[in-house]
Amino acid sequence: MTATVRIPTPLRTVTGGQATVEVAGDDVAGVVAALDAAHPGVAERLLDHRGAVRRFVNIFVDDEDIRFGQGLATPVRDGATVSIIPAVAGG
Amino acid sequence: MSYVTGLRCRECGHAVEVAAVHACEFCFGPLEVAYDYDAMRGAVTREGIAEGPPTLWRYADLLPQLPGTTADDRVDLGAGVTPLVAAPRLGAALGLSDLWLKNDSANPTHSFKDRVVSVALTAARRLGFDTAACASTGNLAQSVAAHAAAAGMRAVVVVPADLERAKVVATAVYGPTLVAVKGTYDEVNRLCGEAAGEYGWAFVNVNVRPYYAEGSKTIGYEIAEQLGWRLPDHVVAPMASGAMLVKIDKAFGELVDLELVADTPWRISGAQASGCAPIATAHRGGADTIRPVVPDTIAKSLAIGDPADGYYALDAVRRTGGAMDDVSDAEIVDAIALLARTEGIFTETAGGVTVGVLRKLVAQGRIEPDERTVAVISGHGLKTLDALGNAYGPTTTITPTLDEFAAAVRLQER
Asked: How far apart are CA B248 and CA B120, in angstroms?
C-alpha cells in the first residue's frame, strides 16, 4: 500500500523541504511509522509521549478527518492521500 | 511603542522570531505573540490609554503592533470601542440585577471580527504581504474584504457555499476574490490550512493567526475600561473556535498583572449552539479531549466542528469557575427576539446563542442574580435575516384610510 502524504510547512524542515512524500502503510499508524523511518523526527512531532496524535495535529485520509474514522487505526488504501494539517483558528 | 519580543508555542514554549507562522515546528501547538511585560509595567497606564484614539488602537501597546509600525501604517476602519450598555430590561426578564451588553455589532462591518482583522492586516502589511486571505463562516470574510479594500490589498476569501445570502453580498461588494466551496466550514478551513503553505498570502486565521487572535483581547480591555477600570464578575461569550473567550480571559489577566485594574475574581462562561457544541459537550462530560462534530445549526458563524482553541476555552472556563451550555435553533431565535424587544439590539444568530445560554445559566443558578455580568453580542441581526424565516413582518397591512388604521392599531392594543 503506497500513500501520498502531504507535508505541512512546519514539518518540511524534517522532510528536507519536500511538500509530498510517498510511503507505504496499511493504516495511519503505519504511514506515520514509515514517514518517521524515512525522515526521523516526524513521529515525535505528530504523536505525544503516549503515542496518541497530538491535540493540535489534524490528519486526514482522503479528506476524512481520522477522528471521524478509527484514529491511528484508520485504514489507508493504495493510492490514498494523507494530509497532515496544524489546527487553524476559526472565522 | 512595540513590546513584542517574538512568538512562543503555547504548548511547549518553543520560541521563534516574529514571522508569518502559526504552528510550532516541534509540536504543532499554536504560536502566540510574546511580549515584554516587565517593560510594559508602569509604562502602559490608564491615562496613556485614555489619550489614544477612540478605537481598539488605544490599546496598541498591548497588541502585536510590530516594531516600526506607525499610526499611519495601521489598517484601521475604526473597529473597537463599541458600546457597553446596561441591560436592565433584559436583566429583569432573566433575573439578573446588573447585566451589561458589549455590543460588538457596532463595529465597521458589524461583527467583532473587525478587531482581529485590523490587528492581523496591520501585522501582515508590516510583514510584507500584499494579499489578505481567510477561511470564513461569513463575518470574517466581510471584515477581511473591507479592510483589504481600505488598505489597497488584494483579498481572497473562502467560504462555505451555503452561507447566508446577506453575508455573501456584504462580502462580494468590497471586490475580493470570493471562493465558495461546496463543503462545511471545517473543510474550507482545512483547504486554507493547506493552501497557506503554497501561496505567499497572509491568511488571517492561518499563518498570521498569532497576531489576528490577539485582536480579541480588546473586547476584554474595553469592558474593563468602560466599567471604570474594573473587572466584571462574569462574562458570557459565544464560542466557535473558542478563541474570543480565551482572549477576553487573557486580557483580564494582563490588566491585573499590569495593575491597571484591581485583582478581583472573574468568571467566564461559553455559549454554543446545540447543533455544533463540541466544546460545551466536552465540558459537560468533564472530558479532556474534544471530539469534532459535523455542524447542523442556524448559527453559521459559530459552526466550527473542530474548534482549534477549544482546549484553552475549557481551561479558562474551568479555571475561573465559569460554565458552558448550548441552545437549540428555536431557543436561538427566541433569544434574538428577547434581546431585540427588551434592549433594542438586533443581533445575529451568534448573539442569540449567547443570550439563550445566558438565560439558561441564570435559570440553572450558575450565574448569581447579582453578579455583574457582561454578555458579548458579537454581530448584527441583519446578517442572518434568513434564520428568522417568515416569523417577522407587518402586524397588519391596510389601505390608507383612517378607519382601517384605527382598526389596525386597536387590534395591536388588545
From this structure: 17
Chain B residue with minimal CA distance to A57?
Answer: B28
Cα(B202)–Cα(B121) distance, rounded to whole angstroms? 8
| Structural domains counted in chain A | 1
Name the band, by pLDDT with cuts 50, 70 and 90, for residue A88. confident
Q: What is the pLDDT of residues B43-87, one digit of tens each?
A: 999 999 999 999 999 999 999 999 999 999 999 999 999 999 999
pLDDT band of B410, cuts 50, 70, 90: confident
pLDDT at A1: 75
Can you tell me the distance from the alpha carbon of B252 to that of B225, in angstroms, rounded to the nearest whole number?
11
Query: Is A91 within the bounds of a domain?
Result: no
Q: Say which DSSP state B30 is in.
A: B
Neighbours of B101 (CB within 10 A): 27
Cβ count near B390 (within 10 Å) = 5
List the domains of chain B with CATH numbers. 4-74+113-212 (3.40.50.1100), 84-108+217-388 (3.40.50.1100)
3-state secondary structure at position B212: helix
Q: Which of B27, B136, B144 to mutate to test the interface with A (most CBs of A within 10 A)?
A: B27
Q: Which residue from A minimizes the CA distance to B190?
A: A85
ipTM given for this complex: 0.87
The whole-angstrom distance between B243's CA and the closest CA on chain A is 7
C-alpha cell, A60: 486526514
Residue A8 in any domain: the answer is: yes
Q: Write down the pTM of the prediction.
A: 0.95
CA distance A82 to B380: 40
Residue B110, pLDDT > 70, answer yes
Residue A45 within any structural domain of the chain = yes
Supply the range of the domain harboring residue A20. 2-86
Contact between B308 and A45 using a beta-carbon 8 Å cutoff: no
The CA distance from B38 to B214, in Å, is 19
Per-residue model confidence (pLDDT) at position B411: 67
Q: What are phi and psi of B314, to 5 degrees?
A: -60, -45
Judged by CB atoms within 8 Å, which residues 137-176 of B form the interface with A? Answer: 137, 139-141
Own/partner long-range contacts of A9-17 (Cβ < 8 Å, ≥24 apart): A9/B21, A9/B23, A9/B196, A9/B197, A10/A45, A10/A86, A10/B21, A10/B23, A10/B24, A10/B25, A10/B28, A11/A42, A11/A45, A11/A84, A11/B25, A13/B25, A14/A39, A14/A40, A14/A41, A14/A42, A14/A45, A15/A39, A15/A42
Q: Which three cell numbers stand for residue B290?
A: 474534544
Q: Which of B316, B261, B219, B197 is nearest to A20 (CA)?
A: B197
